[in-house]
Design brief:
Helix content: 25-40%
Strand content: 25-35%
Number of strands: 15
Structural class: alpha+beta
Number of helices: 12
Largest sheet: 8 strands, mixed
Radius of gyration: 21 Å
Shape: globular
């Protein structure tokens, strides 16, 4: 299906179409393009797009720019709908990355123009790009709200421990002496343990938990490129993280710990163990993901010796429309967060997914 744009085509006659993500050959072409492009991320992959759609019900889309049948660019995304937060076209939904991925400026321009037209045609007053080339006029650039943290992995376990700054290394060593065990897998038991820990962790932070179906879908779609690492104390899961593996990098994406994890230093053990596990899988980089600048998570990652790198996002809203606000640090959510932290866990887990699947 062609996406009509008012932009002139380039001399090379590049054109934009909407991908059929249920067509195996198309999915393979996109995967190959993402793998070869230096800026391709796990959040550009059809596996991510389809997992989000399956796990949350938010529609996956992917624009393709082609020249004589050859891909020259892609722009993946999700049409996020929420009765609480409105509608938005997001690249990519529930991700910390995404945005346009192209070989040349002409492909970028065509894709960005088609993306905004799609937002309008699908009644999305807001469009969001989480990475990629920054678009021109009409878009608001955000470069000071989030930072990323990436570093190289060390050569072995001992070197990895020594690479951690002294104070944080002491915390890891304390945790290693606490008699905890570490297990990696993606079985139903691993998934149950992870969801139990993660759900309680985000409730304690005042945040609705995502649907369990989302985590299951990501694990199923990514296959060997995703797993769960769980830390247990006396047989009980106290910290757990679901990680993504892509092009030599590991990204601990959805993780958390119970209150007991703090004095046990279970989170410290978890991330150190993940670094070592990722190296055995052939990874050379540890991507700690993004954090909002100057938050607790931001400083936690800096304590591990990671240098923050500003992330560039872009947002565009239709004329007269209010920007979508899903920032948990927004003052208007302060009361709701405080209330959520006091909810009984079973109640939070029952109503949380309905709210969270619309955050995107």
């Amino acid at each position: 299906m062609n996406i009509q744009t008012s932009m002139p085509l380039t001399a090379a006659q590049q054109y934009v179409t909407l991908a059929d993500l249920n067509e195996a050959r198309t999915v393979q072409r996109i995967d190959d393009f993402v793998e070869k492009h230096r800026d391709g991320t796990a959040f550009h992959r059809p596996a991510w797009l389809k997992a989000i759609e399956s796990g949350t019900g938010q529609e996956a889309v992917c624009l393709l720019c082609q020249e004589e049948g050859r891909l020259t660019g892609i722009l993946p995304g999700h049409i996020i709908h929420s009765s609480l937060f409105g509608r938005a076209l997001v690249s990519s939904g529930f991700a910390v990355g995404g945005g346009v991925l192209a070989e040349n400026a002409s492909a970028e321009d065509l894709l960005l123009h088609a993306f905004w037209e799609m937002a309008a045609n699908r009644s999305c007053p807001t469009a969001e790009l989480r990475g990629g080339a920054l678009p021109g006029p009409g878009w608001i650039h955000k470069t000071d709200g989030h930072t990323g943290f990436v570093t190289e992995l060390a050569q072995d376990d001992a070197a990895q421990l020594l690479a951690i700054p002294r104070k944080q290394r002491a915390e890891v060593r304390k945790g290693l002496k606490s008699g905890m065990t570490v297990h990696v897998g993606s079985t139903p038991a691993d998934r149950d343990a992870h969801y139990g820990v993660y759900a309680e962790s985000v409730r304690n932070l005042g945040t609705p938990v995502f649907p369990k179906e989302l985590f299951n879908a990501v694990l199923d779609m990514f296959g060997d490129d995703a797993d769960i690492l769980t830390v247990r104390h006396e047989g009980n899961a106290v910290a757990s993280v679901l990680s993504l593996y892509h092009k030599g990098s590991v990204m601990p994406y959805w993780g958390g710990g119970l209150w007991e994890a703090r004095h046990l230093r279970a989170n410290e053990v978890m991330y150190y163990a993940l670094m070592n596990h990722a190296r055995t899988r052939g990874c050379t980089r540890f991507d700690f993901g993004r954090s909002k600048t100057d938050t607790g998570a931001y400083h936690f990652k800096r304590n591990w010796g990671f240098e923050p790198q500003p992330l560039a996002y872009a947002v565009r809203t239709a004329s007269g429309a209010a920007p979508r606000d899903i920032n948990p640090l927004s003052p208007k959510y302060r009361m709701q967060i405080a209330l959520w932290q006091r909810l009984p866990l079973p109640l939070a887990n029952r109503i949380g997914p309905w709210i969270a699947k619309g955050l995107g």
